[in-house]
């Protein structure tokens, strides 16, 4: 039994004047502890699929099972991290990271202590009483990750969480997020436009074709890359050849060449 089963997902957006099919015949199995990246041209339905997996959109057809149970009843077991941190500007960092626990009625002294300890592990010790505007973009994203992990979700959804950051901060956060998810044994799905990021962070890269979105090809990352940090993976001898292979496939999809 797969940890996450995506079965024959098809989704069409309807308006009064038209019907646009965003996804067609999407089936994929994800094992517990795996890190999967969704990569593809703009408009190939990556974020739509992420929203369906998270239970935010009901697909036109198909089912999503998490530990063999329908996703619709398990929304509180899924964490979401977005491009923007969405920290409440009028609340302190401590208040922000405890919001998920409070809303899910899990907030107690033990869970609060665990969240604050995780904040320290993220290199954010001593900023609990500060407001988001007092932090850098990278620090805010780290706080947002703590907020997401504090409720102990079984599945983590990452929708381009590093794309608004400068390159150096992005590389540091890739390592931090990867190491944190590994240490917690979390399963994660990343939507990205960055081929290098997908290779460096993932066990598998799922490449989508557009109009409608379909799984075009799945790339298994070699063990020598999976066992090292994203930063070191980018500097590994195998990285360049995999990058070129995926880039050529992506370019053929965008230019319409086969």
From TrEMBL:
Ranges for domain ABC transporter: 4-235
Protein name: ABC transporter ATP-binding protein
SMART domains to which the protein is assigned, alphabetical: AAA
MF annotations from Gene Ontology: ATP binding
UniProt keywords, alphabetically: ATP-binding, Nucleotide-binding, Transport
Top-level taxon: Bacteria
Pfam families membership: ABC_tran
Record has Transport as a keyword: yes
The UniProt record lists the keyword Isomerase: no
